[in-house]
């Protein structure tokens, strides 16, 4: 990410907006607030309902969406919210759904040798183009390392090659993966946006590539092949493209690590050796001398999905907004489990976060309107690439220059209480000061994300707002459980990732212990209430990649 230095004029303006100090010694106005009356029964009931088979995995554009939107509208109204979009509860989000079918094998040929790989167990692929037939025909493979072009870092993995008609073979994550510190050209072990698959496909398209294939590896991807297969097969939703849209590849896909090794071996190359070369500055792309071919057909459907928006109007500064986000969608029907169950119910991901919007709305309404308005935004199509969040951030109902900041809630692992919380992306903004005061009031402490290499800050809905300059907090449940400590916390997370994440077994369990979730909700209540009662406008810290965008937004608007 490009790191920018704050302009002096903006610094003076924002310093004036920061308000009075408090007894905490902070330069920000961080008021003390009482605990909220948050209903555990609401969390249980809404999570259970949203993740029931009746909702069919909450895929956008299905009957599951209709039921989800109806339930949230009903619950927001009952909680005491007002419709958030000029009298409507919803913001329509135009999408296109492309469902691939009749997949030919991925065939690799060169020097008289041909290998063939089946869709699903060996490779997956999709197209973003609205075309009924996708065909990759003898496209030359080029190993492009991590597929990064970062002029501000002096890095160009495509230097000196014309990718027109060719297919890029790309490593997952970024060149610093595997380091132990947070020092390095790409943030050390902490993944940057350059490490995300979304960026890699976008850059390959900018380079004119016909295809882009990412080499899967569980550690740097932070998830197994089962997640790739279930997430990239079946219907795929995308934002409808307008005029002057960026270029697209013909096909984007993934290959299993052992498949990539075989392909490179055909080319007389070694994956480990090439990976080592790709980590060094000055790496040059490596043409492989083998060609890839495949084809598949596409069913195309255009439709409108919906973000659901409720607002609790502020009593003294209603034109200033604090936002809470969670995505209501999940994967619908997906790769079946051994017992034949093919509904990805998404109980943890993200029926829990959606239920949290309802429970927090109820609690804030019970406490009475704060000074600033509180926005509760349930967004669509997160699983398809944060599409609902991006649409709102590009078409905000409430001006982003008047949006103070926000909290994103994505997947509460339901376990016992913890001594800490996991902060994803710590040190990025002054919202950390509000978080620290809320933690102090609850007698807990922050733990930096133990897996910064996974790039979680760039993988949920808050990122769409951050790119537009709005300071956003993303906090997960704690790692240090009251019963069992960090070992128990790690085991809880590992069990979910390995057995339930993005699979049919992410189901509601009547025996869940909700005490830890309620502890986290109390924290989010305090932070939201503090922001809504404060006079400060927290900003990104100096040097953060989103600071310049926020400063420009503040200068142009009437808020911060």
What does this structure look like?
The longest helix has 21 residues, at 347-367. α3 (63-79) packs parallel to α9, α9 crosses α14 (515-533) and α11 (431-442) packs across α14 (515-533). The protein folds into 2 domains: 8-80 and 313-556, Aminopeptidase (3-Layer(aba) Sandwich), CATH 3.40.630; 98-300, Glucose Oxidase, domain 1 (3-Layer(bba) Sandwich), CATH 3.50.30.30. It is globular and about 75 Å long. The chain has helices at 8-17, 40-50, 63-79, 197-206, 218-221, 225-231, 257-266, 271-278, 347-367, 387-394, 431-442, 462-467, 485-499, 515-533, 547-556; strands spanning 82-83, 90-101, 106-110, 113-117, 123-126, 133-143, 149-150, 155-156, 167-171, 211-215, 236-239, 251-255, 286-312, 317-327, 332-333, 343-344, 372-379, 403-408, 420-423, 445-448, 472-476. It is α/β, with parallel strands linked by helices. The strands form 3 sheets. It has a 17-stranded mixed beta sheet that branches. A two-stranded antiparallel sheet has the order 7-8. Mean pLDDT is 91; it is low at 1-24. β7 and β8 (155-156) form a beta hairpin.
Question: Top keywords for this entry?
Answer:
single chain, 560 residues, alpha/beta, Aminopeptidase, Glucose Oxidase, domain 1, 17-stranded mixed sheet, 15 helices, 21 strands, globular, disordered N terminus
Kindly summarize this structure in a few lines:
It is globular, with a radius of gyration of 23 Å.
């Amino acid at each position: 990410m490009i790191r920018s230095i704050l302009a002096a004029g903006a610094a003076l303006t924002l310093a004036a907006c920061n308000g009075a100090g408090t007894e905490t010694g902070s330069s920000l106005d961080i008021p003390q607030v009482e605990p909220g009356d948050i209903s555990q029964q609401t969390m249980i009931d809404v999570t259970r309902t949203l993740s029931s088979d009746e909702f069919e995995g909450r895929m956008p554009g299905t009957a599951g969406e209709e039921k989800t939107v109806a339930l949230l509208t009903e619950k927001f109204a009952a909680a005491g919210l007002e419709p958030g979009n000029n009298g409507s509860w919803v913001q329509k989000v135009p999408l296109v759904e492309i469902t691939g079918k009749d997949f030919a094998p991925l065939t690799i040929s060169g020097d008289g040798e041909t290998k063939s790989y089946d869709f699903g167990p060996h490779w997956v692929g999709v197209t973003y183009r609205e075309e009924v037939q996708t065909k990759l025909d003898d496209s030359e493979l080029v190993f492009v390392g991590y597929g990064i072009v970062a002029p501000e870092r002096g890095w160009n993995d495509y230097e000196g090659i014309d990718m027109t008609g060719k297919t890029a073979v790309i490593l997952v994550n970024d060149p610093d993966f595997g380091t132990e510190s947070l020092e390095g050209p790409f943030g050390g072990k902490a993944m940057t946006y350059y490490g995300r698959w979304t960026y890699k496909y976008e850059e390959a398209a900018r380079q004119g590539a016909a295809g882009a294939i990412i080499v899967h590896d569980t550690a740097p991807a932070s998830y197994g092949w089962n997640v790739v297969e279930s997430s990239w097969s079946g219907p795929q939703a995308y934002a409808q493209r307008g005029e002057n849209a960026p270029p697209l590849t013909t096909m984007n896909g993934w290959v299993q690590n052992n498949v990539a090794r075989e392909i490179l071996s055909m080319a007389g190359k070694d994956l480990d050796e090439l990976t080592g070369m790709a980590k060094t500055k000055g790496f040059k792309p490596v043409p492989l001398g083998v060609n890839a071919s495949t084809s598949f057909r596409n069913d195309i459907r255009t439709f409108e999905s919906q973000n659901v928006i409720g607002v609790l109007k502020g009593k003294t500064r209603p034109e200033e907004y604090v936002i809470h986000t969670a995505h209501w969608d999940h994967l619908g029907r997906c790769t079946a489990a051994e017992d034949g169950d093919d509904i990805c119910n998404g109980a943890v991901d993200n029926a829990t976060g959606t239920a949290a919007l309802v429970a927090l709305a109820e609690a804030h309404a019970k406490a009475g309107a704060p000074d600033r308005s509180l926005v509760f935004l349930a967004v669509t199509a997160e699983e398809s690439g944060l599409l609902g969040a991006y649409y709102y951030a590009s078409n905000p109902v409430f001006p982003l220059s008047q949006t103070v900041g926000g909290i994103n809630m994505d997947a509460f692992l339901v376990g016992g209480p913890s001594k800490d919380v996991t902060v994803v992306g710590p040190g990025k903004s002054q919202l950390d000061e509000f978080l620290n005061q809320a933690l102090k009031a609850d007698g807990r402490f922050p733990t930096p994300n133990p897996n910064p290499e996974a790039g979680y800050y760039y993988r949920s809905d808050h990122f769409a707002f951050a790119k537009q300059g709005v300071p956003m907090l993303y906090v997960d449940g704690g790692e240090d459980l009251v019963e069992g400590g960090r070992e128990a916390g790690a085991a809880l997370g590992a069990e979910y990732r390995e057995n339930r994440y993005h699979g049919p077994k992410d189901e509601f369990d009547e025996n869940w212990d909700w005490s830890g979730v309620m502890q986290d909700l109390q924290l989010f209540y305090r932070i939201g209430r503090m922001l809504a009662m404060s006079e400060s406008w927290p900003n990104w810290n100096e040097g953060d990649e989103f600071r310049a965008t926020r400063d420009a937004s503040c200068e142009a608007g009437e808020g911060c």
